[in-house]
């Protein structure tokens, strides 16, 4: 089954590389959005799927990456590349330091805390003038749609690679042990707080990288847009539909939801919300472990531990 997942991932990457040669600007924009959400979902998967701590606040890091990069570039006149690197590092450090206390919470308490974190960060950013405040930040138009497509595609590929390396490493085994039985992991000497905080930081880094590119791609950002809670919901749904804890699951989920959403919008602008709602219902009723997760469990995969995440609770 692992080979099938690798074949699927390779096929998606090949199609993504060839897509700009065969399509128009609209398809390139759709492909950019799918790649963006694939990367965000892969970042969420590190903490929610592999570690078993469902975060409802990962949009915090996406928003911080976008807002900080824009602020450093516009207010301090930094080159955008440098501004983006610093923004990503700050978001990663924020995720790690925040993870030390917040990841001591479990289950619904952790989820609620991360949701509150996103709203608190939005409130702070909105009231800090250096970060654009409520008026937002305008950035210069640079590059072409094709450039941003390949950049987002590169981040999505990097996210999948990071997930693969973690899953097949000793550190990945540590995270899976925490997901299965955290108390047992602690009893054998595993520093679970450090391991979880590191996973949270990696998730933050990937989310912030996407935010940095998104900001310059859109050329204008404001806090309500980049801290929109629905972004986290999309990460979560895409990961769960594809298969939480798998390498290819977030990619598959992003492709499915992205294509279905575009198909729905061809009929109605509001139909995308209907598609998202139906996606959640399907996951709850028929695919609690996701498409790839269900196949893995059917082949003798790991038994779900008490901290693994399912919408069934």
Automatic annotation (TrEMBL):
What's its membrane topology?
Multi-pass membrane protein
List the Pfam families: BPD_transp_2
Residues in a coiled coil are none
Membrane-crossing residues?
Answer: 34-52, 59-76, 82-103, 110-132, 147-167, 199-221, 233-261, 273-292
Q: Where in the cell is it found?
A: Cell membrane
- Primary residence: membrane
Presence of the UniProt keyword Membrane in the record: yes
Classify the source by domain of life. Bacteria
Name used for this protein in its record: Amino acid/amide ABC transporter membrane protein 2, HAAT
């Amino acid at each position: 089954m692992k080979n099938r997942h690798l074949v699927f991932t390779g096929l998606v990457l090949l199609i993504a590389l060839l897509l700009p040669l065969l399509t128009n600007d609209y398809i390139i924009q759709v492909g950019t959005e799918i790649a963006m959400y694939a990367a965000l979902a892969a970042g969420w998967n590190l903490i929610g799927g592999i570690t078993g701590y469902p975060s409802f606040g990962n949009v915090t890091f996406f928003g911080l990456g976008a807002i900080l990069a824009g602020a450093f570039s516009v207010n301090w006149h930094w080159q955008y590349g440098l501004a983006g690197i610093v923004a990503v590092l700050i978001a990663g450090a924020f995720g790690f330091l925040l993870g030390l206390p917040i990841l001591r919470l479990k289950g619904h308490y952790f989820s609620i805390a991360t949701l509150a974190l996103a709203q608190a960060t939005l409130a702070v950013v909105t009231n800090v003038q250096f970060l654009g405040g409520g008026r937002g930040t305008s950035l210069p138009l640079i590059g072409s749609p094709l450039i941003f497509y390949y950049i987002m595609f590169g981040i999505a590929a990097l996210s999948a690679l990071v997930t693969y390396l973690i899953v097949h490493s000793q550190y990945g085994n540590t995270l899976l042990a925490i997901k299965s039985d955290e108390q047992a992991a602690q009893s054998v000497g595993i520093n679970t707080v450090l391991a979880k905080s590191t996973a949270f930081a990696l998730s933050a880094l990937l989310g912030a990288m996407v935010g940095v590119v998104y900001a310059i791609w859109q050329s204008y950002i404001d806090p309500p847009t980049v801290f929109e809670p629905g972004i986290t919901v999309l990460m979560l749904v895409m990961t769960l539909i594809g298969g939480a804890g798998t390498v290819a699951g977030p990619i598959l989920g992003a492709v499915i939801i992205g294509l279905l959403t575009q198909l729905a919008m061809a009929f109605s602008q509001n139909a995308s919300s209907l598609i998202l709602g139906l996606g959640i219902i399907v996951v709850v009723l028929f695919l609690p472990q996701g498409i790839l997760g269900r196949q893995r469990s059917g082949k003798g995969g790991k038994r779900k531990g008490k901290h693994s995440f399912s919408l069934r609770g």
